[in-house]
Amino acid sequence: MDLHSNIYVAGHNGLVGSAIVRALEGADYQHIITRTSRELDLRNKEAVDHFFETEPVDYVFLAAAKVGGILANNEYPADFIRDNLLIQTNVIDAAYRANVSKLLFLGSTCIYPKFAPQPLREEYLLTGELEPTNEAYAIAKIAGIKMCQSYNRQYGTRFISVMPTNLYGPGDNFDLQTSHVLPALIRKFHEAKLNQAPTVEVWGSGTPRREFLHSDDLAEASLFLMNNYEGNEIVNIGVGEDISIRELAERVKDVVGYEGEITFNTSAPDGTPRKLVDVSRIAGLGWSARISLEEGLRSVYEAFQGLNLVEQ
Ligand code: GDP
Fold first, then answer.
1. Which residues belong to any copy of the NAD-dependent epimerase/dehydratase domain (predicted)?
2. Whole-angstrom Cα distance, residue 48 to residue 58?
3. Which of 14, 159, 161, 299 has the smallest CB count inside 10 Å?
């Protein structure tokens, strides 16, 4: 990309898309193109075709997707598979026909097989059964990766796919029914502190392990790969370290300054026992994450408190 390229960030209001826009602006890219979902419904093929036919686009960051935590994925699998298949199929195909120079598609590490060896290497994709709670989402994302690779093979496009680990950051979803664990715990501990509640309930056994990547790190990695990576193979993006949900709960408790007890609701699902990514491919290309979990948690909690004040 050069500073005058036309760069379309699909999903710019989301956790990932907003971080990519911040990173592009920070690096002085001049022509960042965005559309809200109201202006352009990416599930609508005609609207997407019209957009790519009328707007000159050189690069696409495809960060638009229907995403959610374990509960939402489990309860609304039809919405997850339909919306993601529609969004990615429409954008990837229209981008090809519009001759865009390069496209970056976002997969996710939750689409690796449930019991794949750890740390997860890129070649483990499609080597085993998926986690049932997010199978519909995973099938859609795997289709997106295969679509990029197939277009590259058949049409000579340069569509790359990345596999970010669990993400968090400013502008995250803090709705307890649909969010991922990290923002959920920030909200739960914050509200428990305000209400002087004696306990905070954490779902599951607390033993599953997760790796957490700040969205600003993911955005930096995405720009880095757009500018430096041409391969057909997927690339993991992570920090290379994980912690248990119990440890995460304790860290969030400390950052928030909550003094009560943590309880575990073992009737709630645990999901995949572990999903730590092997980051050697991206490290070999010359990129590694910079934001520590401690620093990231503090900044997200600060942003969350700011958001609450504005809302009140
Ligand atoms: P996953 O990484 O796809 O499994 O999605 P989540 O981030 O939603 O959940 C990660 C783990 O955190 C699972 O074992 C959840 O049961 C656990 N967890 C504990 N408390 C919560 C909570 O309040 N919300 C969510 N979403 N997960 C929680």
1. 7-238
2. 15
3. 299
**76, 68 in Cβ contact below 8 A?**
yes
- pLDDT, tens only, 158-212: 999 999 999 999 989 999 998 999 999 999 999 999 999 999 999 999 999 999 9
**Measured CA angle at 233 (ends 227, 235), to 5 deg:** 65
Instruction: Kindly give the number of the ligand 1 atom that is closest to the alpha carbon of 179.
Output: 26
**Residue 104 backbone phi and psi in degrees, to 5:** -115, 120
Q: Output the CATH code of domain 6-169+212-240+276-291.
A: 3.40.50.720
Q: What is the dihedral of CA 117, 121, 124, 129, to 10 degrees?
A: 50
The ranges assigned to domains in the chain are 6-169+212-240+276-291
297 touches 250 (CB < 8 A): no
Using a cut of 0.85, tell me whether the model's pTM lies above it. Answer: yes
Question: Which amino acids bring their CB within 6 angstroms of ligand 1?
Answer: 69-70, 110, 134, 166, 179-181, 184-185, 188, 202-204, 208, 210, 245, 268-272
17 annotated ligand-binding residue: yes
Which residues are registered as beta bridge partners of 9?
61
